[in-house]
Specification:
Strands 2-1-3 form a 3-stranded parallel beta sheet. Helix content is about 55%, strand content about 10%. By secondary structure, the protein is mainly alpha-helical. Helix 1 packs antiparallel against helix 2. It folds into 2 domains: about 40 residues; about 90 residues, no CATH class.
Length: about 140
């Protein structure tokens, strides 16, 4: 099951893939047709603004928008530095999982509440050893259903 956000990303990706294919492999097809199609699709997709007072609240807002019910998987990354969360995006897409952020030594209450709401069977923790403490790792294990 894909969330609305993932469906929109997939639709844009497929249009862009069609554009690249037409530009490089189909010389007889005018690229303006593909460009027009991508532009039209982008105009028809809804724009949804999600916000929060910090990165933890914003990640939860995205999760609530994309996963109205339970999620079998959740990806956790540090909220103190962005590369782990960014690098985890393909993993999150592959497992249809929201990316939530945590602090090194504690899980923010809003994030903990969201994990409880999602009731995941599995939680992936991204980053090198120590980016997320063992204490947080143990707490995350307890939050898995």
């Amino acid at each position: 099951m894909l969330g609305k956000g993932n469906l929109a990303k997939l639709a844009i990706f497929l249009c862009l893939l069609l554009l690249v294919f037409s530009l490089f492999f189909l010389d007889f097809l005018e690229s303006s047709i593909a460009v027009t199609s991508a532009a039209t699709l982008a105009q028809t997709l809804p724009v949804i603004q999600m916000s929060g007072s910090n990165q933890y609240e914003r990640a939860v807002a995205v999760s609530k928008q994309g996963w109205k019910g339970a999620a079998f998987n959740v990806v956790i990354a540090t909220g103190e530095n962005y590369p782990d969360a960014l690098a985890g995006a393909p993993l999150a897409i592959a497992y249809n999982a929201p990316i939530l952020l945590t602090k090194r030594d504690e899980i923010p209450k809003i994030v903990k509440d969201e994990i409880i709401r999602l009731s995941p069977d599995r939680i992936f923790i991204l980053g090198q050893w120590g980016v997320v403490s063992e204490k947080v790792e143990e707490e995350l294990k307890k939050l898995c259903s």
